[in-house]
Design a protein that fits this description.
The complex is a heterodimer of chains A (258) and B (279).
Chain A lengths: L1 E7 L3 E8 L2 E9 L4 H16 L8 E6 L10 E2 L2 H12 L5 E5 L4 E6 L5 E6 L8 H11 L6 H5 L13 H13 L4 H23 L5 E4 L6 H11 L13 H14 L1
Parallel strand pairs in A: 1-4, 4-5, 6-9
Antiparallel strand pairs in A: 1-2, 2-3, 6-7, 7-8
Helix pairs in contact in A: 2-8, 3-5, 3-6, 6-7
Chain B lengths: L1 E7 L3 E8 L3 E8 L5 H14 L9 E5 L15 H12 L5 E5 L4 E6 L5 E6 L8 H11 L3 H8 L13 H13 L4 H21 L7 E4 L6 H11 L14 H12 L5 H11 L4 E2 L1
Parallel strand pairs in B: 1-4, 5-8, 7-9
Antiparallel strand pairs in B: 1-2, 2-3, 5-6, 6-7
Helix pairs in contact in B: 2-8, 3-5, 3-6, 4-6, 6-7
The chains are: A alpha/beta (258), B alpha/beta (279).
Chain lengths: 258, 279
């Protein structure tokens, strides 16, 4: 039995395929202007690599911001359900999931069966999201993927105390101009994003085990800050953290076709 | 004696040169990220324009985001002071200054002597303010001048729901993909920016005349919408580029303090001119 999941995010689009309860492939592409294009991009690529066709899929569930528009998906589910289901399917001890996406960040709790209990997410403001991190990295003059490694060399992290990432960009430009150490600035950027995420998690009331999904989990600075602040070691996944929503969608697709 | 002001801002370096009798030259260099070298280049250009190449400036004050790193500066003057001095010089009737620039977004009163009074500042969220427009213009992928000109005639401004610039950016991209007219989109953005600026101004009393300074002052569609929302005409500056007001004010302050030491000026600046803040 073949089940697929497709997660059309604001910045990247992800797909996963499960065969008889085993994950057989994942794929990630940069999102394009239209959700449908991104979904076909990623699914065409993944199916080609697995030497499969759309007709062979028993079920497919879509998620993400363009989830209702995907023609090859039989149904769609919220990102929250998919991240919860995906994380719990991979690591059954997980009860709290912190998901840092391109344009959203959320914290959710699941029960021992992986069903959603409660969640918190950002609504009006992009603070703590991947896009905010990208913009701040741009002001520092590095790629967003460098923020994590660079911050590990920090000795005296700067304090960036503004919530708005655009206002923080200006503070970063001033610090760069004044010749502050770049690693210290990178650490300050990570902490400013992590602080906001932490607020959401605290509002939810976290339970162990905790895991982090979404692109934000790839940033070692943010990851470690949250581990320290929540005083626990996060559960690690056997896959990249940004494909867990797509895996969750595939699991829900498999559930649905049984 | 020759005095200068340098405003090393978020988007451009501005230099003004004056002497004891009048104004000599202005120069503006735009950039993506500020550098001390841009301040040096703008000064060289301004000196050349004034016919003073190679001449030493007697006193120069700096201001703006990078005020501290202007290599030839004798001291840093607060932005509000510089703006109020420049505005008072060019239009003494102004009592309310609305500064929507790259670095700051605030509204404040000045009295007839140029002292700074009550002020309101937006420093939590950039929603609807100066940078909003730049981010959206980038997303629409059309030069700002053209957008402003063509959007003036829009009959159907599209409202943007998102307050956050980051979300507004993707909202605008979706609207473009749905084949909405880009000038209707921009007119909607300009109108929401004008509404938020009007909200900021109303947090202090609106005492006429009101002057709009900073980058947004060049955006004629926002100016028009703001005048409509406040129900008044914004003050003019006889054609002087509002972008150089900070640098010009710094030069004026340098001239005022010609008989004082740099340290004395710095102390006076710090004590006297930071206005009361109203959140």
């Amino acid at each position: 039995m073949l089940a697929a999941g497709c997660d059309v995010g604001a910045l990247t689009t992800k797909a996963a395929v499960i065969k008889d309860g085993v994950l057989i492939g994942v794929e990630v592409v940069r999102s394009r202007a239209k959700a449908v294009q991104s979904a076909f991009d990623v699914m065409n690529r993944l199916l080609a690599r697995l030497v499969l066709s759309y007709e062979q899929l028993d079920n497919c569930v879509s998620t993400g911001y363009g989830r209702s528009l995907i023609p090859f998906a039989r149904s769609n589910m919220s990102e929250i359900s998919c991240h919860g289901r995906g994380a719990h399917w991979l690591m059954p001890s997980v009860r709290t999931i912190i998901d840092g996406g391109g344009q959203d960040c959320k914290a959710l709790r699941v029960d021992k069966h992986g069903n959603l209990v409660d969640f918190r997410m950002n609504i009006k403001c992009a603070a703590g999201t991947g896009r905010a991190l990208e913009l701040m990295a741009e002001s520092l003059g590095v790629d967003v993927s460098q923020l994590g490694p660079l911050s590990q060399e920090a000795r005296d992290p700067v304090i960036l105390n503004k919530l708005c990432c655009i206002l923080t960009q200006i503070d970063i430009k001033r610090l760069v101009l004044e010749g502050r150490n770049r690693a210290d600035i990178a650490a300050g950027i990570n902490e400013s994003a992590a602080r906001y995420i932490l607020q959401l998690v605290r509002g939810l009331g976290p339970r162990n085990d905790i895991a982090m999904t979404g692109g934000m989990a790839k940033n070692i600075g943010v990851y470690r800050y949250l581990e320290r602040a929540l005083d626990t070691e996060f559960v690690k996944f056997p896959v990249e953290p940004d494909v867990i929503g797509a895996i969750g969608a595939a699991v829900l697709a498999a559930d649905g076709s049984r | 004696m020759i005095y200068a002001g340098c405003d090393l801002g978020v988007a451009a370096a501005k230099v003004a040169i004056i002497d004891d009798h009048g104004d000599l030259a202005f120069d503006v260099i735009s950039y993506k990220s500020p550098t001390p070298q841009a301040a040096v280049d703008a000064m060289a250009n301004a000196l050349a324009k004034a016919g003073l190449s190679g001449r030493k400036i007697d006193r120069c004050l700096s201001t703006g985001l990078g005020g501290k790193v202007v290599p030839y500066s004798d001291g840093v003057a607060p932005d509000k002071l510089c703006l109020s001095r420049a505005v008072r010089r060019l239009n003494p009737r102004v009592r309310t200054i609305v500064n929507i620039g790259g670095q700051s977004t605030d509204a404040f009163h000045i009295d007839s002597k140029g002292g700074v009074g009550e002020s309101a500042v937006t420093d939590i969220c950039v929603a609807g303010l100066g940078m909003f427009i730049e981010v959206i213009a980038d997303a629409i992928d059309t030069p700002l001048d053209e957008l402003i000109r063509a959007s003036m005639d829009s009959r159907n401004p599209l409202p943007i729901a998102s307050q956050c610039v980051v979300f507004a950016e993707s909202e605008v991209i979706s609207l473009i993909n749905e084949n909405c007219d880009k000038f209707d989109i921009f007119a909607g953005v300009a109108s929401s920016v004008a509404a938020r600026i009007a909200g900021l101004v109303r947090r202090i009393d609106v005492i006429e005349e009101v002057a709009l300074v900073g980058g947004v002052a060049k955006n004629s569609i926002v100016v028009r919408d703001l005048e409509e929302k406040l129900g008044l005409r914004l003050a003019g500056f006889n054609g002087v580029d509002t972008q150089v007001l900070g640098a010009y004010g710094a030069a004026l302050v340098a001239r005022e303090g010609r008989d004082l030491s740099t340290e004395a000026i710095s102390m006076i600046l710090a004590e006297r001119f930071y206005g009361r803040r109203k959140q």
